[in-house]
Amino acid sequence: MNKNTKIIIALLLVSNLILIGFLYFGKPKNNHGKPPMKMIIERLDFNKSQKEEFKKLIEIHRDNIQSTHRRITKTKNEVYKGLKTESPMLNDSLLQVITKGVKEIEVLHFNHFKDIKNLCNETQKVEFNNLADELGTVFQPNKRPKN
User: Fold this and answer.
1) pLDDT digits (tens, 9 = 90+) for 56-111
2) Cα torsion at 54, 70, 139, 30 (round to 10°)?
3) For residue 106, how far is the Cα from the chain centroid?
4) How many whole angstroms from its chain centre is CA 63?
5) DSSP code of residue 142
6) pTM here?
7) CA torsion, points 131, 136, 140, 142, in degrees to nearest 10?
8) Count of other CB atoms within 10 angstroms of residue 39
9) In this structure, are residues 127 and 45 in contact, taking their beta carbons and an 8 Å threshold?
């Protein structure tokens, strides 16, 4: 191999290592990288039947959330279609539909966690109460930390 080939290989190797570093270290993770479902199961120390019930609750919750998100997205598309007009205006009634949908999502989340709490035995409810202090931040979309 000539000198240029060695330099190119070294640069490619270094750039790949840097890329892997960014992918691994640059991605913020909630609760040490565990998915919320796994984190809740571990924190609350669910037994086998609780895990099964919890998974059923999650399926129902996801369906409800997805349905509400679809309605919000459909309404947002209607709002943004107004941008095609010569004098676009924000339609208050459509904005209220979006706001109502966001409120519904928060109610769905709240009720979902109430259902999870109802799965807990008395010992697990103590840990659930500790978890409740974190629920507002643990289940937020991942955001890059500010530099």
Assistant:
1) 999 999 999 999 999 999 999 988 888 888 887 777 888 899 999 999 999 999 99
2) 100
3) 13
4) 15
5) P
6) 0.69
7) -70
8) 18
9) yes
